[in-house]
Hints:
Elements: H1 10-29, H2 31-52, H3 72-97, H4 104-127, H5 148-179, H6 181-195, H7 199-202, H8 204-207, H9 214-234, H10 239-253, H11 261-286
Amino acid sequence: MMQGRFAPSQSESGQAQGGARGLRVFVRRHPLASFLVLAYGLSWSWWVPMALSGARVRVGSGHPSHLPGLLGPALAAVVVTTVLEGMAGLHDVLRRMSRWHLRAPWYVAAVASPLGMLLVVMLVLKGVGRSPRIADFGRMNGLPELGPIVIWLVLTVWNGFGEETGWRGFALPHLQKLYGPLAGTLMLAIVWAGWHAPMFFILETYRSLGLAMLPGFVLGLAAGAVLLTWLYHRTGGSILAVAIWHGSFNLATATQAAQGILAAVVSTMVMFWGTALAIIDIRARRRGAPSVLV
Length: 294
């Protein structure tokens, strides 16, 4: 037992307990705000110091790396869910992260759709003599060259689960309760885009986009958010499904092989897909029909 002047007094212990109790009360009253503050805080606490120090994350180099910051949304979701619902809530998150009992069409949507788009574009590029090297799919920002399959696994874990556990698994249901399926999804897209802001200072590939490409980046995220909302709900809330889709899409758009026309074409196809879903949803709601996104 600690004695003397190093032992905390009863008043200090009471203040600490009161502070922890007050924090729990705030989280329970404001779960979405708590999640967003924590998700941004965890991610930006890694990225902002990198930006201030002038660090640059390059393709095929494992140092410095932005990857730890990608886990911010997942960690925030786990913390806030545990405060709100205890171990039962945490078990539910883990259950949705491992939900793999899906009907075949949804496996196609989750896994084959981004890779299928990638294959189609590569075949077209091969026909005109501009197909990328397969080995270049094994090179991406913040990692050494690991090979396409390993890179896909890393993208699924770090970008997929790291982001989707928070964005779709936690934030989306709360935003949809407040604003409805489509508006809630678009609100999430704004939050998601803002979370990416420090990457424009540290990732060489983002820095090369320039300010002129920023509207296209935000529009692409919005279309992707609509698509992921649709996929998340149609798979019964499977975080696994959207994580796989996210990782596969990034393989097609964020690796060395994808730089240039390949990433542009695949991203455009996703933008058309997400926009089409949004238009169908708006028309359905005008007719008084249920949302197609849920």
